[in-house]
Every structure is written in structure tokens, then in C-alpha cells.
Write a structure and sequence with these properties.
The protein has about 150 residues and is α+β, with helices and mostly antiparallel strands. The protein is about 25% helix and about 15% strand. It is built from three helices and five strands; from the N terminus they run βαββαββα. Strands 2-3-1-5-4 form a five-stranded antiparallel beta sheet, with helices on one face. The longest helix has 15 residues. The radius of gyration is 16 Å and the shape is globular.
Length: about 150
């Protein structure tokens, strides 16, 4: 699951279109718009307002995305030495945040209109973290050595 929440979308809804285009290029799948569950007056946010986009990848598209992410995008992260082993939730799922979408080779740096981060959650069928870590290592996910 790839999720992008854009707070600026409250004042400028066109930002979501830009983000949706970039996410579609990265994942190869059209994202859905996520809406606010409840109103928050401090953020000038009303219930039902569009505030982000998300994509759920399954099957071949998921494996292709993970392969591109682990082998091409992750090494382009600034000061990247591998993912921390602490990114697991205790039930075999892995969540990580990316601060800039520029790391993906599908996007040309000159054509990027808005820099945004994203949350990537990898849901596995593993019941425990060590099983999920072994699975993701086999898929090519680079982990940091030691603590």
C-alpha cells in the first residue's frame, strides 16, 4: 500500500492531481483519492474533503514495484545504508516512510512540479517479524547490518 497525505490539498485541490499523476507513474496503477474522516477546524478541514491518494498493489504489479524500489529507488535515498530492522509491526508487516518521490527512476527531476513524501506499507502473510524479514530479504530488501 502506497499512501500520500497532502495537507496543502485543503487550500489547493489541484495538488492532488499532480501527486496522483506521479504515483500513477511510479506504481503503474491509478490511485484513489482519500478523504477526511472528520472535520478539524484548526486545519480548516471539513469531513469528506480530499486530502491524499493511495494505491494498493497486488500480484505482479506489487512484485515489480518492490523490485524497482529495492534495487533502483532505495539506493538513491540520501545517506542510505539499508533499512532498519525496527520497521516491522510485530505481525509480519513492514511500514516505512520516504521523504521525497525523486528517488524513483520513473520520474524525471526536471518535470517534477511538487516534491512530496509517501508511506509504504508491505503487508505479508508471515505471522512474525523474523519470518517477514526473511521473506523481504529474499525479495531483495536491503537491511542495515548490526544495530
Amino acid at each position: 500500500v502506497i499512501n500520500v497525505a497532502a495537507g496543502e490539498a485543503v487550500s489547493d485541490p489541484k495538488i492532488l492531481e499532480i501527486i496522483a499523476e506521479d504515483i500513477a507513474l511510479i506504481t503503474g496503477q491509478k490511485p484513489i483519492i482519500t478523504r477526511a474522516k472528520r472535520a478539524i477546524a484548526a486545519f480548516k478541514l471539513r469531513q469528506g474533503m480530499p486530502i491524499g491518494v493511495k494505491v494498493t498493489l497486488r500480484g505482479d504489479r506489487m512484485y515489480e514495484f518492490l523490485d524497482r524500489f529495492f534495487n533502483f529507488a532505495a539506493p538513491r535515498i540520501r545517506d542510505f545504508r539499508g533499512f532498519s530492522p525496527d520497521i516491522f509491526d510485530g505481525r509480519g508487516n513492514c511500514s516505512l516512510g520516504i521523504s521525497e518521490q525523486i528517488i524513483f527512476p520513473e520520474l524525471e527531476a526536471a518535470k517534477i512540479k511538487k516534491v512530496f513524501g509517501m508511506d509504504i506499507t508491505i503487508v505479508t502473510t508471515a505471522k512474525h517479524d523474523d519470518e517477514a524479514k526473511a521473506l523481504l530479504e529474499e525479495l531483495g530488501m536491503p537491511f542495515r547490518k548490526g544495530r
